[in-house]
Amino acid sequence: LLSARSANGVRVGDQFTLIDDSVDPKHPAPPVPAALAEVVRVTPYAVTAIVVDHEQPRIYMGMLARLSARAP
Questions:
Q1: What are the tens digits of pLDDT across the range 13-30?
Q2: What gap in Å lies between CA 26 and CA 32, rounded to an integer?
Q3: How far is CA 45 from CA 7, 8, 20, 52, 54, in A?
Q4: How far apart are CA 26 and CA 68, in angstroms?
Q5: What Å distances lie between residue 47 and 21, 51, 63, CA to CA?
Q6: Cβ contact 55:22 at 8 Å
């Protein structure tokens, strides 16, 4: 689920990139794309998306999600 703030103008088929911006003091690194999620349902309260690809082993609650592709 993506937050309700994400629901503004989002349509079924749009894609979001989930970004891992966690900080490990031992190994500092910039934020990296962690996964790609495709929107399957939109309501006034939230957006439901399914993960269709991932590059990082960890997807967690509170992860930054950016709209990266629009459905035609």
A1: 999 999 988 877 887 888
A2: 17
A3: 7, 10, 24, 22, 26
A4: 30
A5: 21, 13, 14
A6: no
What does the alpha-carbon distance between residue 46 and residue 57 come to, in Å, rounded to a whole number? 25
Query: For residue 8, what are its two tokens?
Result: 């503004």
Please tell me whether residue 67 adopts helix, strand or coil conformation: strand
Q: Which helix (H) or strand (E) holds 68?
A: strand 64-69
CA distance 11 to 2: 13
Write a three-state SS string for 12-61: CCCEEEEEECCCCCCCCCCCEEEEEEEEEEECCCCEEEEEEEECCCCCCC
Confidence at residue 2, expressed as pLDDT on a 0 to 100 scale: 82
- Give the strand pairing for 64-69 and 47-54: unpaired
